[in-house]
Design brief:
It contains five helices and five strands; from the N terminus they run H-H-E-H-E-E-H-E-E-H. By secondary structure, it is of the alpha+beta class. It has two domains: 123 residues; 101 residues, L1 transposable element, RRM domain (Alpha-Beta Plaits). The longest helix has 111 residues. The protein starts with 16 loop residues before the first helix and ends with a helix. This is Transposase.
Length: 244
């Protein structure tokens, strides 16, 4: 007789009459037994999976909590170090800015001093320029230009030759004392061109004034058949007022 058709023990007195009747009237087949066993197995597997997942989830939560705590600690350390570094750099920048401000103030004071010195030096330079021009003008007071003397005259010992020329041309009763005498700095003219002027520096201003006065009163001066002019070294605008 199969298991499903075997007689089962009678119900206890505490069992309900309906249940006893259902079990006694509907015996379980093999399929139902297998399905019940599968359900029990499925329930056991689900229970084991649930317990395993619960344990894994708990462990995962523990690990996440540990990682979060470690991460917060690392972030706090990094923030602390970064704050210290920023404070150090800020102190360095503040010190450098203070040095720059101090240097700028010093340079500003030096610029003010230099401007005052430049103003003083400019006024001194202007006075020196005026004095230099005055000294140059005073040195040129003893200079004259002799125009029209042929090239070749006075090439050897020009001071002596020009002094003798002036004495002969102006009929002087003395020989002028000349410190220097030389041709102008222009290139030597070609044949037939006007000769270069001769620059004369008198040793005595009185002799220069006497010779200029006699030359102006004598009119055109001829020496060796040529027209010579004695011109003082003054601005060209005043030549015509001195030379006739």
């Amino acid at each position: 007789m199969p298991k499903s058709q075997r007689s089962k023990p009678g119900p206890n007195a505490t069992d309900s009459p309906e249940k006893v009747t259902a079990e006694s009237t509907e015996p379980l087949s093999d399929t139902q037994t297998i399905m019940a066993a599968l359900k029990r197995t499925e329930q056991c597997v689900l229970n084991k999976i649930d317990s395993t997942v619960t344990a894994a989830v708990g462990e995962l939560h523990t690990k996440i909590d540990n990682l979060s705590r470690d991460l917060r600690s690392e972030i706090s350390n990094v923030r602390t170090e970064f704050t210290k570094m920023l404070e150090k750099e800020n102190a360095t920048f503040v010190m450098r800015i203070g040095d720059l401000e101090e240097g700028a103030n010093g340079y500003a004071n030096r610029v003010v001093e230099l401007e005052a010195k430049v103003t003083t030096l400019s006024s001194q330079v202007n006075r020196l320029v005026d004095k230099t021009e005055d000294l140059e003008s005073r040195q040129r007071r003893d200079n004259c230009r002799l125009v029209g003397v042929a090239e070749g005259v006075g090439n050897i010992r020009p001071e002596k030759a020009i002094a003798q020329l002036l004495q002969d041309a102006l009929s002087l009763d003395y020989t002028p004392t000349l410190d220097r005498a030389h041709r102008g700095l222009q290139p030597k003219p070609a044949d037939g061109d006007a000769p270069r002027p001769i620059i004369i520096n008198f040793h005595y201003f009185q002799e220069k004034a006497d010779i200029i006065r006699k030359a102006m009163g004598a009119g055109p001066i001829f020496h060796n058949g040529k027209h010579d002019q004695l011109l003082p070294l003054i601005p060209r605008s005043q030549y015509h007022s001195i030379v006739s």
